[in-house]
Amino acid sequence: MNIVGITACTAGIAHTYIAKEKLVKAAEARHHHAKIETQGTIGVEDELTAEDVKNADVVIIAADIGIKGRERFEGKRVVEVATSTLIKSPNMLLEKIEQKLQLG
Amino acid sequence: MQIEEILNENLIDLNMKASTKDEALRELTTLLCKEGNVTDGELFIQDVYKREAEGQTGLGNAIAIPHGKSDVVKTTSIAVGRTKCNLEWESLDDKPVHVIILFAVRNVDKTTVHLKLLSQVAIALADDETLEKLLITDDKAEIIRLLSNKM
Fold first, then answer.
1. Mean pLDDT on B40-50
2. CATH assignment of A2-102, given 3.40.50.2300, 3.10.20.310, 3.40.640.10, 3.40.50.720?
3. Measured between beta carbons, which residues in chain B are less than 8 angstroms from residue A64?
4. Mutation choice for B interface testing from A21, A28, A85 by most B CBs within 10 A
5. How far is B20 from chain A, CA to nearest CA, in Å?
6. Residue B46 Cα, gap to closest chain A Cα (Å)
7. Domain total in chain B
8. How many CB atoms are located within 10 Å of the residue A104 CB?
């Protein structure tokens, strides 16, 4: 599964990066490919390109605030969660997504 | 870009006396003030509590990452504390906290480098093995190594 996503927490200092790291690690352990853009206090890092989004099977938005560039995901399957949900149980989230995608 | 820019052994206390969340925050803020990184402890703590109100900073595995973006922070840095007491803290796993990593962040934008260092520390904290080691090591240099996430 090709996953792209965005993480953005309220202060943009820590949870943003922890959420991304946990998601990427969990995805890779389940043999998925994940590219995650962070929108923190530093600014945007690992920005998703149009190509990235085009090739994605699902978009995960883990945010506690409004994110930038939502229009990029029009027409895509988008899953939205709080950053704490992602940090707490990335595997459960991925499992749910895997099931949904299998059911088409 | 060196971790020593945001963390040194003076900012680590592995034997905190704190038995409550408030005491822990105050003990660590005192370290930051002593080091000259924070100029007004009271105001800083208020900013930390503002962030606490926005969402949980307990990550689970007995670690919490309170942080404050504040005008009274002179140097973006982190203070690390550990206590034997069970600290009640709003956590993702609802369990008590023993290790606190308090982030002090300048409001002014000159410190992108320091913010990058903070994000490296955050990434180190996404690793369960690192969290376990933080709970048991008594070596301050080891703490610094663990958090600098040398990959």
1. 96
2. 3.40.50.2300
3. 54-55
4. A21
5. 23
6. 15
7. 1
8. 4
pLDDT band per the 50, 70, 90 thresholds, residue B151: very low
Distance CA B76, CA A36 (A): 26
Query: Taking a C-beta distance cutoff of 8 angstroms, is the pair B100, B59 a contact?
Result: no
Angle between the N-to-C axes of helices A15-29 and A90-102, in degrees from 0 to 180, rounded to the nearest 10: 50
Beta-carbon separation of A13 and B122 below 8 A: yes
Q: What is the pLDDT of residue B11?
A: 97
Which residue type sits at B18?
Answer: A
Nearest chain A CA: its distance from B31 CA (Å) = 21
The residue-averaged pLDDT of A63-68 equals: 95
- Judge contact between B7 and B18, C-beta under 8 A: no
User: In chain A, which residue's Cα lies nearest the Cα of B102?
Assistant: A14
